Amino acid sequence: MSGGLPCLALDKDDVTKMLAASTHLGDSNVHFQMEQYVFKRRGDGVCLIDIKKTWEKLLLAARVIAAIENPADVCVISSRNFGQRSVLKFASHTGATAIAGRFTPGTFTNQIQAAFREPRLLVVTDPAADHQSIEESSYVNIPVIAFCNTNSPTKYVDIAIPCNINSSNSIGLMWWLLAREVKRMRGDISRITEWEIMPDLYFYREEKPEEEEEAQVIDVAPTQDAPAFNAAPAAATTVDNAFAAADAEISTMNAPQSTFPMKEQWTTDASNDWGADNNGGEWGNDTTGDTTWT
């Protein structure tokens, strides 16, 4: 796709970056549709990808992306962790729509759900991992651009860019090269000067446990009133005086007066006892009444 133009030719610095990122290293297995991109096979069985063909397909993909009038109509997808950072950076620099992480089934076919989209172009990181989005794009006639390894399936893929997708550095570098070529073809940046964005921003970075612990620790600056940790202990007399003052304060404290009324004092007064009888008789022994039965 370079057409023999010097401005579109493969640069020596780009070749050095691709070799350093192991972009030319394929897999030991080869898909029958990816045999045309294999340069040769090493002694250990690993296939070597032709970097010149990789560059030509990269230019073709960049021309297709630059031809889209609305950059938001380009949807870039990566369900793998190695490509999620690259996809987000590519979307921020080119204006595309990024889907990083799990792809919700029905995003391109189900109009009821809130995440429904109708992109004009789809760019995926791994055809095997992103097979759901590729399959749905075939239902609605969306062209697909994919980064493919030597053993990647190419079904429903319109433009396959041969490269190593098993390395995080290779994936980040390919997304960086694609974003740079898209911006150059759109006229946003010049081909004479270097792009100020470094490829390292597109690389997958895994946080180490030490970095996570450092992020959780909060640094608090000591104040002037706070006592020093290595200060000398206070004298024993000061502590004794403090306890003595506390005991004296407790002894002088009086109980507060209660606001509730006093309880009634129940006494054993015989005159008020209902069970007491002055006559000394039982309740049935009533001499005043009439005892005759009628």
Fold and architecture overview:
This protein is α/β, with parallel strands linked by helices. The chain is built from 7 helices and 7 strands. It has helices at 12-20, 51-66, 81-94, 131-139, 168-186, 209-216, 236-251, and strands at 38-41, 47-49, 74-78, 97-100, 121-124, 144-148, 159-162. Helix 2 (51-66) packs across helix 5 (168-186) and helix 3 runs parallel beside helix 5. The longest helix is centred in the middle third of the chain and has 19 residues, at 168-186. The chain is elongated. The N and C termini lie far apart (138 Å).
Task: Give a short overview.
The chain has 294 residues and is of the alpha/beta class. The protein is built from seven helices and seven strands, in the order H-E-E-H-E-H-E-E-H-E-E-H-H-H. The longest helix is centred in the middle third of the chain and has 19 residues.
